[in-house]
């Protein structure tokens, strides 16, 4: 089973999506399941994981509703108010919706120290009790804080989005690479190969420019903890869906069939529990990961 582990749906309006600036005008429109179904069919993708784009319960409910009527949506990464003292009851209610596989907060927009706040960490503790993963959305400068967050929750499954958004447009490699290797030494942390083209210059990036970043995450996490994600429709400001899929498949072409299958689906199946009790549908089960 081939999985796109990261994409978004939305009904566009300028107030709720004010982060879509003039340089991203091409995505100032609705993006719904029918649009994505055409893209994944052309790329021979079997299923997707839908990820929140707004920080409200209404969107989490909306995504769960879309999943109920779109068989190719295999899981949802929603949003809940992790810092709210009453979030436990909300998570209990969502436990009745097994297509919810993880939650995410847009930490990249939060002030320094947010991930270390006691209330946020209490919320993360509750996720491990419910079996939900947590998607880490940060810029590369926040990696030290993310490492400390992961260290505080050794039993929690974490998924790092967009390889922590290094500054590709300026070809900045360090300290991002060193910190990524450090993070990868932790247990229960996966990484999405997604979002690279939008961290580069939208119009002038090259495939060669992306190579050292791709090579670093492959070395650090290995195929067993990497997963393909399109970041559609955001990717469209710099790259069509099919082209990004081709770049990733070209990059991993030298790996074994089993390793390629992990990156193109098996890792997502395992990390998000997309097929209960069988993480081998898209490649071998990952070996036991060592801690640091």
Fill in the keyword field for this structure.
292 residues; alpha/beta; TIM Barrel; eight-stranded parallel sheet; 9 helices; 13% strand; disordered C terminus
Report on the biggest sheet: 8 strands, parallel
Task: Tell me, rounded to a whole number, the average pLDDT.
Answer: 93
How big is the Rg? Answer: 18 Å
CATH architecture verdict? Alpha-Beta Barrel
> Count of DSSP helices?
9
Oligomer: single chain
Topology, number of strands: 8
* CATH secondary-structure class: Alpha Beta
Strand order of the largest sheet: 1-2-3-4-5-6-7-8
Head-to-tail CA distance between termini: 32 Å
Describe the overall structure:
The protein is an alpha/beta fold and 292 residues long. The chain starts with a strand and ends in a 21-residue tail after the last helix. The radius of gyration is 18 Å and the shape is globular. Helix 3 packs parallel to helix 4 (118-130), helix 5 packs parallel to helix 6 and helix 6 packs parallel to helix 7. Helices cover 36% and strands 13% of the residues. The protein has helices at 33-42, 57-69, 87-94, 118-130, 143-152, 176-184, 207-221, 241-251, 257-271; strands spanning 3-7, 47-51, 73-78, 100-105, 133-136, 158-160, 189-193, 226-228. Strands 1-2-3-4-5-6-7-8 form an 8-stranded parallel β-sheet. The chain has a single domain, classed as TIM Barrel (Alpha-Beta Barrel), CATH 3.20.20.
